Amino acid sequence: MSTAEVLQFVNYGIGWHYEPHFDYARKETTEAFKELGWGNRIATCLFYMSDVEAGSATVFPPTGAAVWPRKGSAAFCYNLYPNDKGNEFTRHATFPVIFLSKWVSNTWIHEHRREFHRPCGLTFDAEM
Ligand SMILES: O=C(O)CCC(=O)C(=O)O
Ligand SMILES: [Fe+2]
């Protein structure tokens, strides 16, 4: 994938967590990702590389969804609607690790070169 960021590896120790955030650049951060020249982060793919005994779920507060890490599994989500607007429901966080540690890797896929895989639309719910 030529317009995806290189895999980022993260190891969370006990108590480590991640505050709620969006992976895509919000309207007010107009300079974000400019140096890459690939547009905004259209999607996130998060790979779980370890089983964790307790804690450390990836949670999506606007929806109440939680993804519990399982080694070898992955979570994928589109961050942007087809009309390029950010999807507020993708705001997410990571619960603190309570026991052992958590390994993940993730990549962020950008908008450019996705025109034929996921065409743009005029509305947020345009056909994909
Ligand atoms: O480790 C997780 O559960 C989420 C990580 C994350 O949201 C990020 O790196 O942007
Ligand atoms: Fe994130």
UniProtKB/TrEMBL annotation:
Keywords: Dioxygenase, Iron, Metal-binding, Oxidoreductase, Vitamin C
Gene Ontology molecular function, alphabetical: iron ion binding; L-ascorbic acid binding; procollagen-proline 4-dioxygenase activity
InterPro entries: Oxoglu/Fe-dep_dioxygenase_dom (IPR005123), P4HA-like (IPR045054), Pro_4_hyd_alph (IPR006620), Pro_4_hyd_alph_FE2OG_OXY (IPR044862)
Keyword Ubl conjugation on entry: no
Cofactor requirement: L-ascorbate
One Gene Ontology CC term in the entry: endoplasmic reticulum
The Fe2OG dioxygenase domain, residue ranges: 3-111
Highest taxon above the source species: Eukaryota
Gene3D superfamilies to which the protein is assigned, alphabetical: q2cbj1_9rhob like domain
Keyword Metal-binding: yes
Protein name: Fe2OG dioxygenase domain-containing protein
Top-level taxonomy: Eukaryota, Metazoa, Ecdysozoa, Arthropoda, Crustacea
